[in-house]
Design brief:
By secondary structure, this protein is an alpha+beta fold. The strands form four sheets. The chain has a six-stranded mixed β-sheet with strand order 10-11-12-9-3-13, sandwiched between helices. A six-stranded antiparallel beta barrel has the order 14-17-16-15-18-19. Strands 5-6-7-4-8 form a five-stranded antiparallel β-sheet, covered by helices on one side. Helices cover 16% and strands 29% of the residues. The chain is built from eight helices and 19 strands. The model has no long low-confidence stretch (mean pLDDT 95). The protein has two domains: 1-276, Gyrase A, domain 2; 295-376, Aminomethyltransferase beta-barrel domains (Elongation Factor Tu (Ef-tu), domain 3).
Length: 399
């Protein structure tokens, strides 16, 4: 089940029992009558709050926004935590230091992508894996036979503060403990308004940013929220729904599990080969990956006249050659952008192709490499601190 967040999805809604999925502990601060919520990792989260999404997007790029996100940490602990994670993840774990995070993929026995997320080492035998959408906790338990490990849900809810002002905000929120010396994908425990919480310099936007992890029932979530908002107010911090995040994560080439990548696609096909350590020893799916084609089939696609919506057919002449997995208007680039998943590898980059949109309309498109800009990740790494200038016009509705 893909968690789609395109403009059409904001109108395609149904009523659902609120007891079926996990409510956000921040709902008293984030809820509004116009809220449209999605479900991700069995958690509710706001995909639209009735806001001007273009304004929130530029707030993200020029100042900072706070997101109540549904990504779910899972704790893996015990004497066999390291060998267990070496077995279930395709990334080398044994060399990780405490306070370090790695983007790591779990493959199916057939070599497909089952889950992607970030693994943090909290202690010698204690890790958190912050999962994307999907039933990963159950999958881990099923693979834990023969390992002395415990798999548990720490009941941590995550907030993201993203944007160029995020370091100043987190510096104020931590009483000066968090500053520029905290590197990308580094983490630790900090005092935030009298509550000791885990914080990482990561996010889902490819902007400079941080994630704050609550500590289950021991955290006063509303006090945490109020503290962060008070520290962020002088810097223009505002709440935003996931819609602005979705636009920015696609611009930044961040893939969504179950929407852009899934079990039918290998990490190689997704362009994620740098995160697969084929020489580390055996792991679930390694045998299937040994002889698989290493060429990618997932690229970016741009369109000057329309947004390449999910499900759009990609045509080479009159021949279908792929489909769009997700598409958004890009306020920075001033065009429609999306992910193009081709039926087979090939020299697709710089090709001029056509799209058949779900409406039946046909538009011209061009294939590009990912990400769409900032290919060296200088923004998220804090190297490029320039505040982007907002274009005078945007031909697409970014709602």
């Amino acid at each position: 089940m893909a968690s789609l967040q395109e403009a059409a999805d904001l109108e395609n809604v149904v009523a659902i029992s609120a007891r079926r999925f996990e409510e956000s502990p921040f709902i008293a601060r984030t809820g509004s009558p116009g809220m449209i919520r999605g479900v991700y990792a069995d958690r509710f989260f706001p995909i639209y709050l009735g806001e001007d999404v273009t304004e929130k997007y530029w707030l993200l790029r020029q100042k900072a926004v706070i997101f109540d996100v549904p990504e779910k940490p899972i704790e893996i602990a015990g004497p066999d935590a390291v060998p267990f994670l070496e077995r279930v993840l395709a990334r080398r774990i044994s060399t990780m230091r405490e306070g370090r995070g790695y983007y790591a993929i779990a493959c199916t026995p057939q070599g497909g992508i089952f889950m992607d997320g970030v693994v943090f080492r909290l202690g010698p035998d204690r890790f958190w894996y912050v999962q994307a959408d999907g039933p990963f906790e159950t999958w881990l338990i099923a693979h834990s036979v023969g390992f002395d490990v415990s798999i548990s849900d720490p009941k941590s809810r995550v907030l993201q503060i993203q944007g160029p002002a995020s370091i100043d905000i987190m510096n104020a929120a931590s009483g000066g403990a968090i500053d520029d010396t905290m590197g990308y994908f580094r983490s630790g425990v900090f005092d935030l308004g009298g509550q000791k919480l885990y914080v990482s310099r990561t996010g889902f936007t490819n902007e400079l940013g941080f994630e704050i992890y609550s500590d289950g029932a021991t955290t006063d979530h509303l006090a945490l929220w109020d503290h962060l908002m008070a520290c962020g107010a002088p810097h223009g911090l505002e709440l935003a729904s996931a819609r602005a995040m979705t636009i920015r994560r696609i611009e930044g080439g961040i893939l969504g599990n179950l929407s852009d990548i899934d079990t039918s696609m290998t990490p190689f096909e997704a362009g994620l080969a740098p995160f697969i350590d084929m020489d580390k020893g055996d792991f679930v799916g390694r045998g299937a990956l040994v002889h698989r084609d290493r060429r990618p089939v997932l690229f970016g696609i741009t369109c000057q006249t329309a947004v390449p919506a999910a499900g759009s057919m990609i045509l080479d002449g009159d021949t279908p050659v792929g489909r769009v997995t997700a598409g958004v208007p890009s306020p920075t680039l001033g065009c429609g952008i999306g992910y193009a998943r081709f039926l087979s590898p090939g020299a697709w980059v710089d090709r001029a192709l056509r799209l058949t949109l779900p409406t039946g309309a046909i538009c011209e498109a061009r294939v590009v490499d990912l990400p769409f800009f900032d290919k060296e990740k200088t923004i998220v790494r804090g190297i490029d601190r320039r505040i982007p200038v907002r274009p005078t016009s945007m031909p697409f509705d970014a709602r």
